[in-house]
Amino acid sequence: MERRGFLVGAALAGVGLLVRPARAGALGGTLPAIDQPAPAFDLDGVAPGVDGTVRQAHLATDGFRGRWLILYFYPKDFTSGCTLEARGFQRDLASFHSLNAEVVGVSADDAEAHLSFCGSEGLAYPLLSDPGGLVSRRYGSWLAPFSARHTFLIDPDGVLRSLWTAVRPAGHAQEVLTELQRIQNSGDATIAA
């Protein structure tokens, strides 16, 4: 009888793999759906100033309307993988800007840690603080007490166009840049002037 129960359970599990859920699950929660409006956010953090200094900032989803947004979540400032990923986005920042795209990082670190991290790594894009993981949860990227390493590509109308989960930091910025170029060149997206 135990064997039969096991076989029935295994068969049901196999059928469950064939059914595609409407929204994909990730280790950090439920991921938002592609081709749907990206979850709103409103966070404090740090951002580069006009004079090159880093200042405290308050950024919301609406502040990026009309531009592409690369929103990447990462675990912690000053760790090896997070530093490698941040440097990659900084290296390719001019290329992102030439495609009308902004880069924004999000972690549970506070603004002080972000300020120090931006300064030591010469980052010229905003880092936002999500200490309780509220926004990270909306993006399926929260593994308390850290944000999971996920990246989201949001179009100028606020629609989620691509996502990456369990990101490997080395070469990731280039991967995102290639996808942005592919989408823009395919005519799948409208680029705001």
In short:
The protein is of the alpha+beta class and 193 residues long. Helix content is 34%, strand content 25%. The chain has one domain (24-186): 3-Layer(aba) Sandwich (Glutaredoxin).
What does this structure look like?
It is a single chain. With 193 residues, the protein is of the alpha+beta class. It has one domain (24-186): 3-Layer(aba) Sandwich (Glutaredoxin), CATH 3.40.30. It contains six helices and eleven strands. It has helices at residues 2-18, 80-91, 93-98, 111-121, 134-138, 172-186, and strands spanning 25-26, 29-30, 42-48, 54-60, 68-73, 101-107, 127-129, 142-143, 146-147, 150-154, 160-164. A seven-stranded mixed sheet has the order 4-3-7-6-5-10-11. β6 (101-107), α4 (111-121) and β7 form a beta-alpha-beta unit. The longest helix has 17 residues, at 2-18. It starts with a helix and ends in a 7-residue tail after the last helix. 33% of the residues are buried. Mean pLDDT is 83; it is low at 4-25 and 189-193.
